[in-house]
Request: fold
Amino acid sequence: MFRFIRGAAWLLAGMIATPVFGATALQCVPYARIVSGVNIRGDALTWWDQAEDRYARGHVPRRGAVLAFRPYGPMTLGHVAVVSKVLDDRRVLIRHANWSVPGAIEEDVLAIDVSDAGDWSEVRVWHSPTGQMGARTNPTFGFIYSDKARLHPFEADPALGASVRFAKVDQDMSGQEKVAPKADAPVEAPSRLAGLGRSLRKAVHEPRLDTDMRTMQFADATPSGRSLRDIIADVKRDARLR
Reply:
């Protein structure tokens, strides 16, 4: 009983605190800066204000633009992602890091504008571990436009933190939400993340695997504001699955 209660407390704390991997995993900011060429530093929540008088800003998606997310729920420092392709007025593909799983790089995954005004002030984002759109609505500031609309390659750099590449969404999905394997995506992580990398590659073919407890803390892994009863139920279910 004590072990069960301790496990529930750990999960509850993890959903409101910085994850264990936070200090060593690749963060969204350096990834977005390299891929977009938008040379802004500091926490993601500061990018929108820092961009004033330095870069054009707006609410229309463009290739190479940075989508700046407002702090919300467990995303206390905000988030930044780079638009890789505009599908239509309400759908884009993005590239970003440290969203679904600590340090994970998700390339060309779907983001949908769900705002009433159609101004990209609220979005839903693909959640790779479950192979579907995340259930949570995420508020954003808008888009920061790079000087040149191009995407820069991202090369693994241990100095930026450990990273692992996820699969990407099929660009020819035709409105369907499916995941295609990324054959040329080796794991770029130390041995302590090797097991996580294997589970991510397996998730490409089996997107509804048992929940990794570490993913519970991130973005759309669980809705915000969950009750303690829900959390305890998750702990019990995880114990049975193991």
In short: Confidence is low (pLDDT under 50) at residues 1-23, 172-226.
